[in-house]
Amino acid sequence: MTGQIQERVREAGAARTPLRITGRSSWLTAGRPVDTTDTVSVGDLSGVSDYVPGDLTITVRAGTTLADLARLTGEQGQWFPINPYGSDLGSIGATVATGSSGPFSHGFGTIRDLVLGLEAVTGDAKVIRGGGRVVKNVAGFDLVRLMTGSWGTLGVITEVTLRLYALPAHRATIAMEAPTDPEPLAERLRAILNAPVIPYALELVNEEMSRRIGLPTRPMILVEVGGNSAAVSAQKDALGKLGAVVEGPSDCWETMRASEKGARTVFRVSGLPAGLAMRWDAAKRILDGPGDAMMHASIGRGTVRCILANNLSLDAVERLATVDPGSTLILETAPAPLWNKLSPTAIGDRVSQNLRQAFDPFGILNPGILGTIS
Fold first, then answer.
1. What is residue 39's predicted lDDT score, i.e. its pLDDT?
2. Residues 92 and 60 sit within 8 Å (Cβ to Cβ)
3. What is the largest CA-CA distance in the chain?
4. The model's pTM
5. Do 276 and 238 share a domain, yes or no?
6. What's the CA gap between 170 and 174, in Å, rounded?
7. What DSSP character marks residue 346?
8. How does DSSP assign 174-227, residue by residue?
9. Residue 200 sits in which domain range?
10. Residue-by-residue DSSP string for 155-178
């Protein structure tokens, strides 16, 4: 199967035909516009190559959906605890290529932390492999982390090896009201982070997001915990000492993941976790205009994510980018003018350009998705 991808890339390289790399084609609006109509798809490249439940590792082909991955590992009492934004209809290859993670990255790390090895076809049609199929492996050059989040510009990912975890016997989502003023909010967030709780996810949501996921229309804090019944009960009690708590809807994380569907603009404002309350308040004030703006934030990672159905003015986004000198604005989905103005390229440095030249000498893989090379 990899041979078919290799031959497609070889033909495109010989003809100097740019290729758009696709998986399940569920997130093609993300990233900068790609300057090509020809595609190479890994959607049919699915299934398990190797699974050793005792080692808590699985190797799957890139087109395998997250839903299939969850089903296969769930049968063995295991799971791959990555819930990237979108849905489980997306492929694992696209998840790795885009470096996508979700709320559970608070407890389990990002996708980069859970990919142990991979196989890919470079722009000159060479099949390369990095990492391994065990949790402890030694490699001199970390090809796995390099390819993860490279958006297909260094190679077409065809297979990945993933680290798994045992499914918890019990899980619960606890919700509590969040203060609206930044200082009390910062105090509440510090108290939760210092509490005897080990959350899988720890998110702050605004009124609109709270309403969408089935909670009261007010700012809320969501805490996902898991383990045996005693551990879950003890963590619920610890959170209850900080304020009134309620049980969150069982599908709230899936609803949150899918909330960006149809959005015109999605971006993140990232910075140190200690400054999250001020960052959240500034973003909330700037986005007060569009009534349907949704916001949620990773409390442990310091990132505020904003989802807008309507286009946001350049002026508003530029103000968001400067609310905190130590923060960074990262566009996910946006109209072309926003990309051109705020983030025309992510590969303007010499190291990135040399890497791109080494792995894709003909410049045919997803041209433009990370910006232009000067």
1. 92
2. yes
3. 66
4. 0.92
5. no
6. 13
7. S
8. EEEEPPSSHHHHHHHHHHHHHSS---SEEEEE-HHHHHHTTS-SS-EEEEEEEE
9. 170-256
10. -EEEEEEEE-EEPPSEEEEEEEEP
Instruction: Find out whether 121 and 127 touch, Cβ atoms under 8 Å.
Output: yes
Pull the structure tokens for residue 319. Answer: 């103000």
The pLDDT of residue 320 is above 80: no
pLDDT given at position 202? 98
Q: Which residue has the tokens 């915990």?
A: 225
What are residue 224's phi and psi, to 5 degrees? Answer: -100, 125
- Which of 309, 288, 368 lies closest to 336, judged by CA? 368
DSSP class of residue 7 equals: H
* 145 & 17 share domain: yes
Contact 60, 47 (CB under 8 A): yes
Q: How many CB atoms lie within 10 A of CB 370?
A: 22
* Contact by Cβ (8 Å): 29, 20: no
Answer yes or no: are the C-beta atoms of 104 and 82 closer than 8 Å: yes
Distance from C-alpha of 23 to C-alpha of 156, rounded to nearest angstrom = 10
Residue 352, in any domain of the structure: no
Burial class (CB in 10 A: 0-12, 13-18, 19+), 51: middle
CB distance 45 to 135 below 8 Å: no
Q: 211 in a domain, yes or no?
A: yes
Residues 189 and 278 in one domain: no
Q: Are 8 and 149 members of one domain? A: yes
pLDDT at 141: 59
Q: How many domains does the chain have?
A: 3
**Residue 50 lies inside a defined structural domain of this protein:** yes
Give me the residue label for tokens 């720890």.
202
Where does a domain end: 112, 143, 166? 166
pLDDT at 36 (0 to 100): 84
DSSP H helices in 24-128 = 66-74, 92-97, 105-108, 111-114
85 and 185: one domain?
A: no
The one-letter amino acid code at 156 reads V
Per-residue pLDDT, 315 = 73
Alpha-carbon distance of 248 to 245, in angstroms, equals 9
Fill in the DSSP letter of residue 273.
G
The Cα–Cα gap between 360 and 20 comes to: 13
Tokens 């890339």 — which residue? 9
State the average pLDDT over residues 126-143: 73
Query: 210: pLDDT confidence band, cut at 50, 70 and 90?
Result: very high
In this prediction, residues 337-363 reach a mean pLDDT of 90
